[in-house]
């Protein structure tokens, strides 16, 4: 028996139910994170402020193994935050709980998107969309983890120790720390969606593999500039640890695009 075709209002009603389910999941997660926030704040959000953070231990281990005496590999690092806004701790408590709920609810959001659009797709389209949503979810979390464990600690260590003048003492506010933390971690998560976005654009005929290959050198320059903006440090190591993953994402974007047929390539030329 064929499925009943839904009207516009049926689709609108289904979309409303999807939104309610997504908002419900976000709310439940946000409440859970709000309750657990004192522990999460000390052991997760503020972890890059402490000298025993896993990435700092890794840098010191590399320095010992390779006998590197540069301060970058031997530095003992700690940051003490200050609060200058009476209401800041409460609002940061709420906003951080909500932000964490949004990030961790991403797989469920993609699942709801899949449930909503899949009935309108052909079998081969369903396979492609399902693959795209799965890859997008995995790549997003890889970017978030890289931003948390590497990019943000490097940025924090550089900016918090940078001195314009020896007479100026750096005091980092709680608001400034949280704003930069959320921005960088989220930006890295979104940056890792580059292969997915490129693949979708290729399906629409906007970009092609030959185009990405032709402008590879230009892309490298843009990637290096972007890496310098994300982590404005003066050492080549910091620039490399950000630029290399971004460049690999660019190459992955090329691999994900299927080769065009000879006739199509000749037409483009």
UniProtKB/TrEMBL annotation:
It is found in: Cell membrane; Membrane. One of its GO terms (biological process) is intracellular protein transmembrane transport. Its main location: membrane. Keywords: Cell membrane, Membrane, Protein transport, Translocation, Transmembrane, Transmembrane helix, Transport. The chain crosses the membrane at residues 18-41, 90-111, 132-151, 181-203, 215-231. Forms a complex with TatA. Belongs to the TatC family. NCBIfam families: tatC. Part of the twin-arginine translocation (Tat) system that transports large folded proteins containing a characteristic twin-arginine motif in their signal peptide across membranes. This is Sec-independent protein translocase protein TatC. It comes from Bacteroides fluxus YIT 12057. The gene is tatC.
